[in-house]
């Protein structure tokens, strides 16, 4: 077993790897000038030494290309020498989510631009019929991308032949485990060949990753790369406020355009996702929603349109199932609060058996609607994100790291802003209350410690509340209009719209791709009470530095009449129509 500490392999670009000209030309066309740190270390080990790679690197460090480049190069070498490698399924890539699967397929298609006849890729993670996927696999594509459950199902059905597999990849391995695919991986370890060259890519290396490594890897090279983002590249701020002030600050930030560029707003709940969208709508702030309830094709289209700068504001739910970091004091508080809350519910509401049954069925339906293979804070490649706003602070330091990894990618700068609710102000305003916000301060302290170890500093940021306060009454008026009924109706309306677009119009869009541009995901859903006047910001609300003196245009009459006649008539009519002088008794 060999290991590497992440030493640089050289700075001669991709030419130093002596790649096939077709692959080298595709890299140039895609704009790949210099390899990243993980690519510099992983590609030579995989090509020259045929090592199994176990790599830990941060999100956005180029892990996908780090395993695709040596796989494609090996397939081209095999085709050139006449050995087996093309015409059979030789590569299986496992990913945790359908969004990441689509990203891997796009990257593979881009790198095989000049060798598509030799190397074909098929994605079987999508929600297509088994017959369609079986027919695609029967054509023996060189590379198959799938989720663990879908790959295992096809292997058991014998529609996915594993005899000729030579390369095997588990991308975002720790996220695959957090999604509950450990049993699937254990079964795959028994069914797949033992002679495969394996890549194990992960943002963290834990005991569970070591267990997987022992089942799939033989001749291992472990890469623990410290490819961190500098504090100059990524600015991190936090704002301490109460729960209702989150909406006030978000309204001011986006209405006055204090943040330039594309922004991802993370919330911890799907209802919060639609509450914030309906809240923004009343001020004319357009946004689109991304959550696990939406169809897969809609989610992929939203990500693609966001990367194409069609949308500038994306509200996303983070449902990564990260474990909540608790200590003993938190557990005691949680049990005490839960007991107290249970007693209050029993005394206040006293629900009947029928209501309890309906609540249980609603929970089951909600769980069924949520996609198990969904992940936004990790895996998905969001491009040119200027700011990440943690509207709801995540429940763990890992989730925070993955969220802010959406910005400041590929040597670009970015900013992360987090709203933190103090424990004293938690629960004061129940309509805007969020259960996880009670632990915001403790989670913030852990985040500051972990980021401090990487020489990244979280700085407090304070808004001038005197200037912000003038917007409060408009914020409260808009917040009251977004009722629970409006949120529920908007949630159903959004799903219906997306289902219609993704299912019934799918064939139409395939035949007419230009019509896909007319499909917008940031349409207004409308709250229960529409208030058009909130979309305009009066000048007296703006800070003095942002106000511009309006030029005096003089008096503008309502009727288009001559000024002389208008003045004469007004004087004459004023004498006649004086009610005190013309009043007569009837």
From TrEMBL:
Residues 322-375, 545-586 are annotated as: Disordered. It catalyses: ATP + H2O = ADP + phosphate + H(+). It is found in: Nucleus. Residues 12-40 form the DEAD-box RNA helicase Q domain. One of its GO terms (biological process) is maturation of LSU-rRNA from tricistronic rRNA transcript (SSU-rRNA, 5.8S rRNA, LSU-rRNA). A motif (Q motif) lies at residues 12-40. Its main location: nucleus. Residues 352-369 have a biased composition (Low complexity). Residues 562-575 have a biased composition (Basic residues). One of its GO terms (cellular component) is cytosol. Keywords: ATP-binding, Helicase, Hydrolase, Nucleotide-binding, Nucleus, Ribosome biogenesis, RNA-binding. Residues 576-586 have a biased composition (Basic and acidic residues). Residues 233-466 form the Helicase C-terminal domain. One of its GO terms (molecular function) is RNA helicase activity. Its EC number is 3.6.4.13. Residues 44-223 form the Helicase ATP-binding domain. The keyword ATP-binding applies. InterPro entries: DEAD/DEAH_box_helicase_dom, DEAD_box_RNA_helicase, Helicase_ATP-bd, Helicase_C-like, P-loop_NTPase, RNA_helicase_DEAD_Q_motif. Belongs to the DEAD box helicase family. DDX56/DBP9 subfamily. ATP-binding RNA helicase involved in the biogenesis of 60S ribosomal subunits and is required for the normal formation of 25S and 5.8S rRNAs. This is ATP-dependent RNA helicase DBP9. It comes from Sugiyamaella lignohabitans. The lineage of its organism: Eukaryota, Fungi, Dikarya, Ascomycota, Saccharomycotina. The gene is DBP9.
């Amino acid at each position: 077993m060999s290991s590497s500490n992440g030493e640089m392999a050289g700075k001669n670009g991709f030419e130093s790897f002596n790649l096939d000209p077709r692959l080298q030309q595709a890299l140039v066309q895609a704009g790949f000038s210099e390899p990243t740190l993980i690519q510099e270390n992983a590609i030579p080990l995989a090509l020259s030494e045929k090592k199994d790679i176990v790599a830990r690197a941060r999100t956005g460090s180029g892990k996908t290309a780090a395993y695709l480049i040596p796989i494609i190069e090996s397939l081209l070498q095999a085709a050139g020498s006449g050995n087996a490698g093309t015409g059979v399924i030789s590569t299986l890539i496992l990913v945790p989510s359908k969004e990441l699967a689509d990203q891997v397929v796009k990257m593979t298609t881009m790198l095989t631009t000049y060798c598509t006849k030799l190397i074909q890729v098929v994605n079987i993670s999508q929600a297509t019929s088994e017959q369609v996927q079986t027919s695609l696999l029967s054509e023996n594509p060189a590379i198959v991308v799938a989720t663990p459950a879908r790959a295992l199902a096809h292997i058991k059905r014998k529609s996915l032949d594993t005899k000729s597999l030579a390369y095997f990849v588990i991308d975002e391995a720790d996220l695959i485990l957090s999604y509950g695919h450990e049993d699937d991986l254990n079964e795959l370890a028994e069914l797949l060949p033992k002679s495969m060259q394996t890549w194990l890519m992960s943002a963290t290396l834990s005991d569970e990753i070591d267990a997987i490594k022992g089942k799939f890897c033989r001749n291992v090279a472990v890469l623990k790369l410290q490819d961190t983002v500098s504090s100059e590249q990524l600015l991190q701020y936090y704002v301490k406020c109460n729960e209702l002030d989150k909406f006030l600050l978000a309204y001011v930030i986006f209405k006055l355009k204090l943040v330039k560029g594309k922004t991802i707003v993370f919330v911890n709940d799907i209802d919060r996702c639609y509450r914030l969208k309906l809240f923004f709508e009343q001020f004319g702030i357009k946004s689109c929603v991304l959550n696990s309830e939406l169809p897969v094709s809609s989610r992929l289209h939203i990500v693609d349109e966001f990367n194409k700068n069609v949308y500038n504001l994306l509200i996303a739910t983070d449902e990564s199932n990260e474990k909540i970091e608790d200590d003993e004091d938190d557990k005691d508080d949680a049990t005490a609060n839960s007991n107290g809350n249970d007693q209050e519910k029993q005394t206040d509401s006293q629900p009947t058996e029928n209501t309890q049954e309906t609540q249980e069925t609603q929970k089951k339906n909600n769980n069924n609607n949520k996609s198990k293979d969904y992940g936004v804070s990790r895996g998905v490649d969001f491009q040119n994100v200027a700011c990440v706003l943690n509207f709801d602070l995540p429940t763990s330091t890992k989730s925070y790291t993955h969220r802010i990894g959406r910005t400041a990618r590929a040597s670009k700068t970015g900013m992360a802003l987090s709203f933190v609710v103090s424990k004293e102000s938690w629960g004061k305003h129940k309509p805007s209350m969020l259960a996880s916000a009670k632990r915001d301060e403790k989670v913030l302290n852990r985040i500051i410690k972990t980021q401090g170890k990487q020489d990244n500093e979280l700085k407090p940021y304070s808004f001038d509340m005197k200037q912000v306060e003038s917007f409060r009454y408009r914020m409260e008026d808009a917040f009251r209009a977004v009722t629970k009924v409006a949120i529920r109706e908007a949630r159903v309306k959004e799903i219906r719209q997306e289902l219609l677009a993704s299912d019934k119009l799918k064939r139409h869009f395939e035949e007419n791709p230009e019509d896909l541009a007319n499909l917008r995901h940031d349409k207004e859903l409308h709250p229960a009470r529409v208030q058009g006047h909130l979309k305009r910001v009066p000048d007296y609300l703006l800070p003095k530095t942002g106000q511009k003196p309006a030029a005096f245009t003089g008096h503008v009459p309502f009727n288009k009449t001559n000024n002389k006649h208008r003045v004469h008539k007004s004087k004459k009519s004023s004498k006649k129509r004086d009610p005190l002088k013309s009043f007569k008794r009837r």
